[in-house]
Prior knowledge:
The chain is α/β, with parallel strands linked by helices. The chain has 2 domains: 5-120, Rossmann fold (3-Layer(aba) Sandwich), CATH 3.40.50.2300; 129-224, Winged helix-like DNA-binding domain superfamily/Winged helix DNA-binding domain (Arc Repressor Mutant, subunit A), CATH 1.10.10. It is built from 8 helices and 12 strands. The chain has helices at residues 13-24, 36-45, 62-69, 86-94, 107-120, 155-166, 174-182, 190-204, and strands at 5-9, 29-33, 50-53, 77-81, 99-102, 129-132, 135-138, 143-146, 149-150, 171-173, 214-217, 221-224. The strands form 3 sheets. The chain has a 5-stranded parallel β-sheet with strand order 2-1-3-4-5, with helices on both faces. Helix 1 links the parallel strand 1 and strand 2.
Amino acid sequence: xxxxxxxxxxxxxxxxxxxxxxxxxxxxxxxxxxxxxxxxxxxxxxxxxxxxxxxxxxxxxxxxxxxxxxxxxxxxxxxxxxxxxxxxxxxxxxxxxxxxxxxxxxxxxxxxxxxxxxxxxxxxxxxxxxxxxxxxxxxxxxxxxxxxxxxxxxxxxxxxxxxxxxxxxxxxxxxxxxxxxxxxxxxxxxxxxxxxxxxxxxxxxxxxxxxxxxxxxxxxxxxxxxxxx
Length: 229
């Protein structure tokens, strides 16, 4: 099973350690960052499934970090902060945070909020399994089957397929996909994306040269199609 990856951006070492122990004990993969700069680099190089963000960072205001992340990062962001003012909470939610918890927190509540945020990111219908012809994508377990057999996908290949599948039927531009998967530093690397799409098609398509699911929209981007028309 591929574990959902959570990036913790918090300058307090004890907080990071506590979150690391709690999250890993519930089968999450954890990356830690002590500064805004470090967190943004991690998020850009390998966007996680969820970010836990503190507002009181030493090098940059947490709300500014949130707003910067929301320029390209589409996965859930949960604020975990000592700031309890209603105005701050509303501003964070209006800036794109999925949820807001204050310190100290209860682990059970935090884990429930994480599960809810991850479920919501799968789509409005809450489905955790998508069937597309011979493909079966299990978003909860991060696994993919074809003809009943598990496919061996790299983390990047899975994240790419999940992004397309969660936007079933929608055209995703090259820039949108590059930002979402690799970060803003790759938005001009369309050839880089084509290489990964070609690799992915070899694994999920009956005939990679005549794809049925991962379609090219010439000059624009790609569109995932779960059902034949």
